[in-house]
Design brief:
It is a single chain. This protein is of the alpha+beta class. It is built from twelve helices and nine strands. The strands form two sheets. The chain has a seven-stranded mixed beta sheet with strand order 1-4-5-9-8-7-6, with helices on both faces. A two-stranded antiparallel sheet has the order 2-3.
Length: 338
């Protein structure tokens, strides 16, 4: 095939090409190492010396024609491909945007804020303290000496003989009484730690909210009024309370408080074990020994204290039967509280 025939054939294929890929195939076919025009140059060795210059010029001219045609076609095809790509990626800015999923407060945080706000509305302050606490503040000043059986109830994580991970937020009450002169009206929220195995009702780490009131002529009736006001604000006006005798080394007398079961409405169910009521907190009049340990004269001052698990209150408020749900961070569960 002559140079002119090869060029004519190449130009026809270039004109018919519809994509950059097809153009590249044509380039390889004619101008590659084994392309038809490239192979023509290898025929020069068979020609007489006087024929070679004219033949070489003709082959170079053919190569130039094909290269120019490829370049021109490539520019046109690139423009078409860019236009097609832009059309495919076109965005209608008048369409509404995609809604972004918004986060929300964790149910434990929601319950904490609700409890805190109720007590703030009653004139309480919010105090906090360290999670790594001295044994003296966590136990001894609360009338729980080293040989006291109540220590077994606490299941304590010991950092050393004299330092523990606090088992309740009561040390904050001790620190408050040591650093503040009565009258005192405060709540102390925070994480506490006990060596409990994880199950549906226990966790080694949980949230607690304790409260303390110290002043002159503070009576058990003041405690009942405060607790009842909190319960009705938290659970609703129709919820009933029951105070049962209890025991805590740092209060005397002591009581445990039950409320109407929010799952069955007091009819009796598995959650309340058929009783129709469920325990939510412990409380009592501050033991005079604790007041003395904190430098307060029990003849002049009296007070009451209470403590509640924020996790338990969240469970009873929302009818959650497994405490582990609060810590697994399953989005399907958490969306219920948005």
């Amino acid at each position: 095939m002559s140079n002119d025939e090869i060029v004519k054939k190449a130009l026809g294929e270039i004109g018919a090409a519809g994509s950059s890929g097809e153009l590249n195939d044509i380039r390889v076919k004619y101008l590659g190492k084994k392309g038809e025009i490239t192979m023509l140059m290898k025929q020069m060795g068979t020609l007489a010396p006087e024929e070679r210059p004219a033949f070489g010029q003709a082959v170079n001219a053919a190569r130039g024609s094909v290269e120019q045609a490829l370049l021109s076609a490539a520019e046109k095809i690139a423009q078409k491909e860019d236009a097609a790509k832009l059309a495919a990626e076109r965005v209608d800015i008048t369409l509404p945007g995609r809604a972004q999923a918004l986060g929300a407060l964790h149910p434990l945080t929601q319950v904490y804020y609700e409890i805190r706000d109720i007590f703030l509305s009653m004139g309480f302050d919010v105090n906090e303290g360290p999670e790594i606490e001295l044994d003296q503040y966590n136990f001894e000043m609360l009338n729980i000496p080293k040989d006291h059986p109540a220590r077994d109830m606490q299941d304590t994580f010991y950092v050393s003989d004299d330092v523990v991970l606090r088992t309740h937020t009561s040390p904050v009450q001790v620190r408050t009484m040591l650093g503040q002169k009565p009258p005192i009206r405060m709540v102390c929220p925070g994480r506490v730690f006990r060596t409990d195995d994880v199950d549906a009702t226990h966790s080694p780490v949980f949230m607690q909210m304790e409260g303390l009131v110290v002043g002159k002529n503070i009576r058990f009736s003041d405690l009942k009024g405060t607790i009842n006001t909190f319960i009705r604000n938290f659970y609703g006006e129709d919820v009933k309370t029951k105070f049962r005798p209890g025991f805590f080394p740092f209060t005397e007398p002591s009581a445990e408080v039950d409320v109407t079961c929010t799952v069955c409405g007091g009819k009796g169910c598995a959650a309340c074990k058929g009783a129709g009521m469920i325990e939510v907190l412990g409380c009592g009049v501050v033991n005079p020994v604790v007041l003395q340990n904190c430098g307060l004269n029990p003849e002049e001052y009296s007070g009451f204290a209470f403590g509640m698990g924020i996790d338990r209150l969240a469970n009873t408020k929302y009818g959650i039967t497994d405490i582990r749900l609060l810590y697994e961070n399953d989005a399907r569960f958490l969306r219920q509280f948005v």
